[in-house]
């Protein structure tokens, strides 16, 4: 009975926390208790059927919460293997408050372990998982080895028409997304950061009359993915889209890695959303669709840019994590909280505990009473 008492207390605590992580160090067993299911450490699960009734209830509530307005958790996840005892190798071991993950360095060919991990993260925790890579030239990451990209995509797949080759390329990405039951594509668009090419340029808007190549790519993705509830997001430089194109993109994800103050981070969002023009030229719903992200490949030990200055006196008192805490609690000009925050190489967030900084920031960003739900978007 003593073991049962402890197990019930643990289950009640779990159900009362909105954004927690499974960190059981020991397997809880109930050898002498009839009709009770053993709680298996989350890292060892192979199926959602192994969850206890209390766990099923908790995760059902978590999935429902993720459908409500809130500050979304995001990250680029590298080094994904879904093997071993290191929780940073598993999607399922991400904080429960993480909504969207872009796979960094994974372009398909998933192992059985990865497929199981993916299924648990998506179906149990309600997370979305996206393919992601930089696209500057037609065929990036998908041109078969030994093939010339133009010959393969334009001549062979497009019948000599470049735009038909673009459509074939976009559809090949969608094929991979559908094959592994992923949730969409994160288009990393960085022509101004040194990644320009025949698909990415700083000299034309992404529109039907400007950068037609990228417009065709995005529209093909959208037309294929959107009817099935999948999404397209753009990170890097979303401000190169015109308004019509931006309506096909669910979120604008800004790489605000070295912004040093609250004002500069907010200015990045405003400049991206308006690009210095009038209201008619704003990106579609830019205040409700913009994310700020941090660089954890360099700054994981300090929770973001180490010399960051927050306009919030309480955040400024922190020894570390000022940037990520500031981003998570940032108010947009419309008075609502930012749509989401994230980290590049989120798996490196290990200083002081697994995902300490991201977990604490999302907790702060979403800490609000039921009467203030309108503050979210």
Describe this structure in words.
By secondary structure, the chain is α/β, with parallel strands linked by helices. The protein has one domain (72-372): Glycosidases (TIM Barrel, Alpha-Beta Barrel), CATH 3.20.20.80. Helices cover 33% and strands 13% of the residues. It is built from 13 helices and 8 strands. The protein has helices spanning 2-15, 53-65, 112-123, 149-157, 162-179, 212-225, 243-246, 262-274, 286-289, 296-299, 313-316, 322-328, 356-365, and strands spanning 72-78, 98-104, 128-134, 184-189, 231-236, 252-255, 290-295, 340-344. Strands 1-2-3-4-5-6-7-8 form an 8-stranded parallel beta barrel, surrounded by 5 helices. The longest helix has 18 residues, at 162-179.
Features:
13% strand; 377 residues
> Which percent band covers the strand fraction?
5-15%
String of helices and strands: HHEEHEHHEHEHEHHEHHHEH
Number of strands: 8
CATH class placement: Alpha Beta
Instruction: Give the CATH H-level superfamily.
Output: Glycosidases
In this structure, how is the largest beta sheet organized? 8 strands, parallel, barrel
Indicate the structural class: alpha/beta
Low confidence ranges: 1-30
Q: What CATH architecture label applies?
A: Alpha-Beta Barrel
Provide the number of structural domains.
1
């Amino acid at each position: 009975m003593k073991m049962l008492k402890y197990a019930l207390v643990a289950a009640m605590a779990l159900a009362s926390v909105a954004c927690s992580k499974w960190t059981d160090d020991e397997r809880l067993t109930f050898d002498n208790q009839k009709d009770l299911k053993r709680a298996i450490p989350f890292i060892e699960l192979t199926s959602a059927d192994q969850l206890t009734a209390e766990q099923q209830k908790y995760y059902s509530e978590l999935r429902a919460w993720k459908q409500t307005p809130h500050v979304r958790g995001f990250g680029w996840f590298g080094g994904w293997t879904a093997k071993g005892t290191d929780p940073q190798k598993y999607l399922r071991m991400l904080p429960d408050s993480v909504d969207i993950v872009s796979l960094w360095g994974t372009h398909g060919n998933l192992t059985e372990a990865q497929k199981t991990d993916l299924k648990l993260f998506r179906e149990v925790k309600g997370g979305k998982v996206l393919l992601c890579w930089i696209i500057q030239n037609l065929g990036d990451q998908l041109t078969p080895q030994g093939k010339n990209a133009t010959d393969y995509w334009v001549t062979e797949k497009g019948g000599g028409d470049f735009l038909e080759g673009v459509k074939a390329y976009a559809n090949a990405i969608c094929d991979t997304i559908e094959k592994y039951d992923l949730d969409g594509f994160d288009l990393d668009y960085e022509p101004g950061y040194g990644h320009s090419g025949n698909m990415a340029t700083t000299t034309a808007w992404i529109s039907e009359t400007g950068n037609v190549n990228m417009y065709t790519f995005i529209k093909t993705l959208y037309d294929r993915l959107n009817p099935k509830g999948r999404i397209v997001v753009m990170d890097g430089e979303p401000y190169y889209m015109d308004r019509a194109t931006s309506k096909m993109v669910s979120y604008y994800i800004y790489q605000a890695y070295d912004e040093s103050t609250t004002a500069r981070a907010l200015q990045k969002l405003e400049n991206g959303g308006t690009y210095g023009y009038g209201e008619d030229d704003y990106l579609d719903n830019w205040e409700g669709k913009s994310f700020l992200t941090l660089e954890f490949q360099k700054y994981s030990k300090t929770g973001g840019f180490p010399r960051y200055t927050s306009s919030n006196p309480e955040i400024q008192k922190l020894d570390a994590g000022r940037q990520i805490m500031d981003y998570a609690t940032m108010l947009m000009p419309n008075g609502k909280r930012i749509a989401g925050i994230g980290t590049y190489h989120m798996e490196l967030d290990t200083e002081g505990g697994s995902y300490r900084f991201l977990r604490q920031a999302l907790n702060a960003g979403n800490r609000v009473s039921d009467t203030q739900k309108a503050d979210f978007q």
